[in-house]
Amino acid sequence: MPPHSPSPESPIPADAPLGLTRRQWLQGTLAVAAAGLVGSQVLRAVAQAPGEPLDAFMALSQALTARPTLDRAVGTRLLAALGKPGSDFVAQLRPLAQSLAAGALSEDQQKTALRILEAWYLGVVDGNVVTYEQALMYSVVSDTLVIRTYCPNQPGFWAEPPVERQA
After folding, report:
1. DSSP for the chain?
2. pLDDT of residue 81
């Protein structure tokens, strides 16, 4: 797509991309998802009752990913990576749950929610791999794609015509 040529009074630079960026789309999607969570009983319970940080993290993760169940062992490792010493990540969980239950997130809370989603879907926190096979990005396409680096069959299987799966 060629860059557009702005008029002299246009504040848009000539090399600016047209349309939404991926980041803007993701933030908008998160805002819509958060708005759909208004009234969530689980989030209200997390927001009101003090409890175990892992329980709050798992409840927030389930609400953000819209998955009824998540692997608690993976959640433990992700929470440990996100809440490393010196960070206030654990202290942010309860206010984040309150804001999600109310349907309004601040910019910092959006960043925290995106970090949680990124950790679950990519399995990576601050450049460190926390989980590989259990990263949620693979479950989205598990019906057709094999996790990268794993051979789905015997060596040289790719030389034969593919066999179509029957549903």
Report:
1. -PPP---TT--S-TTPPSS--HHHHHHHHHHHHHHHTTT-HHHHHHHHS---HHHHHHHHHHHHHT-S---HHHHHHHHHHHT-TT--HHHHHHHHHHHHHHT---HHHHHHHHHHHHHHHH-EETTEES-STT-HHHHHTTTT-PPTT--SSSTTGGGSPPPPPP-
2. 92
